[in-house]
Amino acid sequence: MAVRRWASSIPNLILTVGLGYFVVWPLVAIIGRGLLPHSHLRLAAVTDVFTDARVRSVFGFTLWQSLLSTVVAVALGLPIAYGLERVRPRGAGVVRVLLTIPFALPTVVVGAAFIAEFGAGGPLRSWQWLHTTTIIVVAHVYFNLGVVVRVVGTRWREFDEQLIDAARMLGANRVRTFASVTWPAIAGSVVNAAAIVWLFCLTSFGVITTLGGLTKTTIETEIFRLTTQELALDRAAALVVVQLLTVGIVAVVCARFVGSRAVAGEHAARSLVASRRSRRAWSVSLWSLAAVMVLPMLIVVQRAFETGGGGFAALRDSSRFGWRPIDSVATSLQSAAWATLFSLAMGTMAAFIVGRRAPGWRALNALTTLPIAVSAVTLGFGFLIALDRPFDLRDRWFLVPLAQAFVAAPIVLRLLVPTMQSIAPQLREVAALLGASPVRVTTSIDIAILLPALATAAAFAMAISLGEFGATSFIARQNQPTMPLAIARLLGRPGIGSQHAAFALSFVMIAIIGALAIFAGTVQSAASRRRGMFR
Amino acid sequence: MTLTVRDLAIRYDDREVVSAVAFDVGDGEIVAVLGASGSGKSTILRAIAGLVPAQGVVAWGGNDLSTVAAYRRGIGMMFQDHALFGHIDVVGNVEFGLKMQRLSRSVRRRTARELLALVGLVGFERRSIASMSGGEQQRVALARALAPSPRVLLLDEPFGALDRVLRERLVIEVAAILRARKIATVVVTHDHNEAFAIADRVVVLNAGRVEQIGSPASVWSRPASLAVCELLGFAPPLRARAHDGWVDLGWARVADPGSHVGDVDVVLRPDAFVMADDGPLRAEVLTVVPFGDRMQATVRIVGGPVTRAMADADSVSQADPGREVRGSVRGDAVLVFPVVT
Fold this sequence. Notes:
The complex is a heterodimer of chains A (535) and B (341).
Chain A: H1 2-35, H2 44-49, H3 53-87, H4 92-104, H5 107-118, H6 133-158, H7 161-169, H8 174-202, H9 206-211, H10 219-228, H11 233-260, H12 276-304, H13 306-315, H14 318-321, H15 327-355, H16 361-373, H17 376-386, H18 399-422, H19 425-433, H20 438-467, H21 470-475, H22 483-492, H23 496-534
Chain B: E1 3-12, E2 15-25, E3 30-34, H1 41-49, E4 55-60, E5 63-64, E6 75-78, H2 90-100, H3 105-118, H4 134-146, E7 152-156, H5 164-181, E8 184-189, H6 192-198, E9 201-206, E10 209-214, H7 216-221, H8 226-231, E11 238-243, E12 246-248, E13 253-255, E14 262-268, E15 273-275, E16 281-291, E17 294-301, E18 306-312, E19 324-329, E20 334-338
Parallel strand pairs in B: 3-8, 3-9, 6-7, 7-8, 15-18
Antiparallel strand pairs in B: 1-2, 1-4, 4-5, 9-10, 11-12, 11-14, 12-13, 14-20, 15-19, 16-17, 16-19, 17-18
């Protein structure tokens, strides 16, 4: 027992120290800087921010666009979840996958795709959506529809259709049946999904940067602007504090709602008995929706090859931009490879502690989630203002991969823990009784069973690191942009030529992420086939 | 008043799963629909309820219900897994239907209390569904179905999820409650014991068609077909030849009141072999289950099949496994069916 405790407390110590220095300390530094701008406490520093009309409007717009995006995403996601999980027309599985693809794409790539579709030279340029609230909301919905469909759909799929029959047999009409039986069962998941979407839209950075133009700015882009253009670090820090408070309040409120909802029905559900006509209608609408979702990706690829592949030629041309956009591919891959390694190391160590409910697992779980909870921009800004003490790390090569790893690690942890917990303790006991030492038990049972999950986690970590934009924006070296930074920079430049280069680079990213997705899919299906053998 | 089902036909994706089903359920009568899984019995129930579209007539007291929506039919239903609402407590479940009728709170409370007393759950009002045992949940489901005073009650495998001892007890209790309240009831089940225990009449279903309708006693003693025999758990059929009013089984010859000619299928009812020391047949005892001063045995008739046998303990000397006993076959317990080609 004593050995066990030591075995889990060493990684716990490493993780706590690491997260403490790279995540908690920068946060403390930001809050300190925001509240104590000249080394004396001024709570007013935060309220002072609001005397600035620009900040007030930015704050207002952040709330407005995020709320609107959330409402639209949920309103659209509910019927889709219903169609996919209850009506289940032919091809529902494929549509479900297509809907979740955007979530795996880098925000900047989606921004580029929307510019390809709605911007100059795009097929829908006449709609004049660029730099409007509409396109921001549409992009946010595009990203988060899959989240709503997944989160609500999972709950809805488990929902026992017999309960609806029961209510109807007791005299409830459709409306009352929904209100008294269906809604209570899915409400928790709806609030949960809305919370995720809202937090995503509140802290959205890549979408706003690429699609918002100069007028549509949010707290996140304002922090970036204050930091990089006005060098007003104190005001940026105060704004981060405002952002943290907003996110915190939203998270707490939503958590209360989710917690208070009871869950109904745990029986295997039947699919709805729908008439063939309505099933076909559902099938047609869902497939059209999937087509609309895939369209921007097709357009950006098509436009990358426009003008005889001029976009790709421009990638190799250093005279045009002063740097070669193609170099960002190598920079990104290198950085993402390190980030994957870091996040796998962090995630695996954390999974052993969280998955086994070892002492301190709750704190560690929260600490690991902190970087994505506070937003990547905050993380990057924190690195920038805090990591000069005790050593100045701000110019070290590992800083970018490390920041990306912190963003990816929570996902790695969440992918590993369920597998970790699915390992029956008897397997470990049998191995021990057969003569395996504790170390051998870990390697021959835990690691062996975790391997497919680790491969999937690696693919996810790689994809997240490649697409990471918020934190990287603050800390990447000016002359060594990663792919998302290069795309954003190219999109920010005037001229259709640089846009084509951005589309070409987006195509490269889509190809890499697509390959990673196929890899993850193959590993998972192979693993589930193998698991099936033992059942 | 009577629930009438006529020419009921239900299609799923061009496949007719229920065809030409017709039966009546009188006031206070309990009718069991007995069928194997996939025979369409639950579908019939859902069609009566109005939960699936169907062709044909479902009528109550002569009024066609086909155009009446499920929630207005005034039919109560108990579901296989009870389908209780987990997000509301026991009394909330029982009151649900009363709420839909927009009855006042005091009326609802009074009715709910009455029904909970009826099913023996006084004091359980505020309990959560999840905290109750399977049998208790079953009673809540019954109380909930009865609360809006339905004219017809449909029970879909109501005891299926319960263990045997509990099931046997609840079948008796539920039957008593239904009889006392004089509700026309249709029970769907795959278990013939359950059907016989609860029902006044049994509708036997096979592949979506009615195979036989009758009292439990008549269905058991005169099954209409091999399919019915199988549902009742009778031994598998034996192939034999019939001629001149006799059936030749090889190891015995029995009278054939049906006067078949040629190949026939013969099923021995469980009561066909009677142990008697002076019987003409010899049989080897395989298993013995004591039953008071009688016993139930499984025997292999010499030269013939394995069959069940019943005997007074003192009429047969020492029927232990491995021993040989003597006995005879009761002609009226031998069921003869023409071979369908």
